[in-house]
Amino acid sequence: MITSVMIVGVGGQGSLLASKVLGRAAMDKGIDVKVSEVHGMSQRGGSVVTYVRFGDMVYSPIIDKGGADYIISFELLEAARYIDFLKPGGQIVTSSQEIDPMPVITGAAKYPEGLIEKMKESGAKVDAIDALSIAEQAGSAKAANIVLMGRFAKYVTEITREEWLGAIEACVPAKFLELNKKAFEMGENA
Predict the structure, then answer these.
(1) Which CATH architecture has domain 2-188?
(2) The pLDDT of residue 43
């Protein structure tokens, strides 16, 4: 069995670290894993997508429309933007944070309302938490990505809590390690 995860957000939110942590946790478990490069304008606040696939034998990291078991989203509109990639009945783990895209900033469009309800109406299971506030409580808004990984961990039962924490230790610089472990734990318990 292969598990397919899309990690989506806006440039600068930590998609790359989140995908590294997930990939490392699966790899340390002895599960075959493929992680794509970051796609999108990660330096410009644009939409960013990373694919992580793990299981018995993974041949490609790419996820086609309708192929994702999970979408982890750092921003609400990004979750809605990529919902076509989710399998029927798939799970979205998202931050409730809203970051205005350029058309909203320039006044050419309005930020859509009721996105969580609309995603649920489409058949997706949606687990939305205020990852930004939780990360700030942990010590830094920049840890919202790890808060979401903590929340996502409850859905991936084949990877233990110790393996997740080991992956965080392997991927996060020592000076930010305790903060990120706390953010992960707060995400788990949100």
Answers:
(1) 3-Layer(aba) Sandwich (3.40)
(2) 57
